[in-house]
Design goal:
The chain is of the alpha+beta class. It has one helix at 52-63, and strands spanning 2-6, 11-15. The two termini are 17 Å apart.
Amino acid sequence: MDVVHEYPDITVHLTLFHATIAEGVPQKLEHNDIRWITPAEIPHYDFCPADEEILKRIIEVYHG
């Protein structure tokens, strides 16, 4: 899934991948936090406006 979101000062292009971790531990490189959550937990967290369309799709797929 690809999403293009326009902020007042920048346009971002996000690509969602379905992947698995073969080995190692995920590390945050550009964000302040990283954690595993379930689709049901998504509404309990604050996300950037650019993420909203992707998050809605994740909820639809896993909760119909």
